[in-house]
Amino acid sequence: MRIAGVLTTLQAVAAFAFVAALLVRGTASDLGQRGTLSPVDLYGEAGYYAVLAAGVLAAGIGLLKGKHWARTPSLLLQLLLLGTAWYALGPSGRPLIALVIAAPAIAVLWFLFNREGREWSFHAQAAPDAD
What we know:
By secondary structure, the protein is mostly helical. The protein contains five helices and no strands. Helix 1 packs antiparallel against helix 2. The longest helix is centred in the middle third of the chain and has 26 residues, at 39-64. It starts with a helix and ends in a 9-residue tail after the last helix.
């Protein structure tokens, strides 16, 4: 569970790096051609992704602490990332990006569904998060 928590936390750090890149992009004087986003739109997008990244970070820290509630959000995130990797591999034709996205997602899924992960999840004592 700890390795899955570390990988999920690293995914949150990557998401926060993307947020930082959006904020830096918003300060640029030339944002491209007609029809592109304005700086205000980029700041809104950065805020949206910051909220999502905070949720991923909470799930990663929850897994690190052994909290059972963090398993489902982490699983859902990994499945969404696998869908993103599939799109990057197929229609987008970006196999390297697909590999970078899919490898940690598959690893987290494996750690959450291997024998230790299942035992941790299904054979826990009553109310494991009651502390």
